[in-house]
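Moderator note: this is an archived Q&A kept for reference. The question asked for a predicted structure of one protein chain; the sequence and the answer are reproduced below.
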Amino acid sequence: MQITTCRRCPRLVAWRQEVAQTKRRAYQDETYWGKPVPGFGDPQARVMIVGLAPGAHGANRTGRMFTGDSSGDFLFPALYRAGFANQPNADHQNDGLQLKDVFITAVCRCVPPKNRPLVAEIKNCLPWLAAEVALLPDLQGFVALGGIAFDGIRRLYKSQGIDLPKMQFGHGEFYELGQGLPWLLASYHPSQQNTLTGRLTESMFDEIWARVRDLLV
C-alpha cells in the first residue's frame, strides 16, 4: 500500500477531507490534496528533517511537506541560507524547489484537528517513517522540529527494540542514538506560535543548520 491511500486513522481521514472540502477563503479556487502527505527531498540526503504533521491549508492543500504555509515560509529560507535548498520559497509542488542533502517528512502524515495527533495515530504512522529512513542509504542524522517529532523519532527506534540513551527535548539539544545509528538534533518548530513570539528567531534557526553542516561527514 502506498502512503497516499492510507486510511488507518478514521479521525484523521475525516478531518483531512473536511478541511479539503471546506477550504480557506483564500484558496477556494484550488483543489486541495486532502490525503496523507509523503516526505520529499534528496534521495542521497544525509539529513532527515522531521516535523509534526501537514498544515491544514499548507501541505494538506499542496501535497508537499511545509509547502504553502507560514512554517515553510520560515523553514525554507533558512535551508536556502545554509545551502540545503536552491531557493527560499516553497509555494506548490511545481515551484522549482530542489533540496540538497536533506529529506523532509513528519511523524504524522494527515492533518490532525487542532494540530494535535493522538499517540495511537502517531504510532500508526511510524511504519511510513521507518520506510523513508530505509530509503536513505546515506542518512547520518535527524533534525527534529518540535517535541512531538523528537519523541516520534525516539519511539521509532524503541519500537525496533533499540535501547536509547536518556534524552530530553530542548532547542539545540544533540544526542548520539547509538553505534551505527543517526544522530538527533532538536529544534523548536518553525510555527508562528514560536516565530512570532520570539521563542524561535532567525538567528537561532540558522545556528541549527550551521550545526548540521558541521556534523556532516
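Archived answer notes: The domain at 8-215 is CATH 3.40.470.10 (Uracil-DNA Glycosylase, subunit E).
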